[in-house]
Specification:
about 80% helix, 11 helices, about 270 residues, mainly alpha
């Protein structure tokens, strides 16, 4: 659908009202509130919440698991941020191409594709399903097949930066947000997949947090969840999902910052294309 200049100006003005720092502050405030909820309900059993969850026999007797589990509120918030990043990136890409700024237009179009892929990964666990299929094909293999999928994600993320990154570098704040988001996402992928490829378990770190720092208050009371499993689950949910949420926040800030800088350039007449 075509957007006339007046509507385009209204959309850009609306986007400019969303400050990147406000997005980051909101994201950090959400994570802080989640951590406070974990301390109050899981550790201090405020209002008997921990006791209620244990008595309900839901096999999820901890608030931290409900908040950070797959398809939980934290992951849903990631879906929202990724969806917004996709929509804004595609919109800006179309507007840039209409003004014959093809390089930046292609760049944000590719970033939109990247965020769609990340959304599919978060929503349907493409890498885990690929690993499951590969386990049927090569059941005796100890190779983590998710490495292949994550490597493809890395290539999709890096290619537009290599090809068009110098054009985005003019918009320094947007460039900085994007690079930082890449590094944070890469760190999440590293602790999720590449540590396993190196034969390094995340469980000891999770167990250290649960036992040494929190005196075992976050443990599950069910015998079938042994200590190593709980440490791994804690790292896979609370730690990894928090990192991924912040990474998606930075990607959204990158496109928002670009809109701000590009719109100001148009007003000042510096780069009308």
């Amino acid at each position: 659908m075509l957007v006339n200049n007046e509507d385009e100006d209204k959309i850009k003005r609306a986007l400019c009202r969303i400050k990147p720092r406000h997005v980051i502050i909101s994201c950090l405030m959400y994570l802080i509130i989640c951590m406070i909820a974990i301390v109050l309900f899981d550790i201090y059993n405020l209002a008997g919440v921990r006791s209620f969850l244990e008595a309900s026999d839901l096999e999820k007797p901890r608030v931290w698991f409900h908040i950070f589990n797959e398809q939980g509120p934290t992951e849903m918030l990631q879906w929202l941020l990724l969806s917004l990043t996709t929509l804004i990136s595609v919109f800006i890409s179309g507007r840039l191409m209409e003004k014959r700024n093809y390089r930046l237009g292609y760049f944000w179009y590719l970033i939109g594709i990247l965020t769609i892929i990340l959304l599919l990964e978060d929503g349907s666990n493409v890498s885990h399903k690929f690993q499951e299929y590969m386990s049927y094909i090569a059941p005796e293999s100890i190779f983590d097949s998710r490495f292949i999928v994550y490597s493809i994600y890395m290539i999709i993320a890096i290619v537009p930066l290599i090809k068009y990154g110098k054009d985005l570098y003019y918009y320094r704040t947007s460039f900085t947000y994007l690079i930082t988001g890449y590094f944070v996402y890469g760190f999440a992928g590293f602790i999720s997949v590449f540590l396993g490829l190196l034969g390094i378990s995340r469980a000891p770190v999770g167990n250290y947090i649960i036992y040494n720092l929190l005196n075992g208050k976050l443990l599950y009371p069910y015998p079938r969840f042994h200590d190593a499993m709980i440490g791994e689950i804690f790292m896979d949910t609370v730690v990894e999902e928090s990192i991924e949420l912040f990474a998606t926040c930075l990607l959204l800030c990158s496109i928002l910052s670009f809109v701000h800088e590009h719109y100001n350039d148009q007003i000042n007449g510096n780069r009308m294309n």
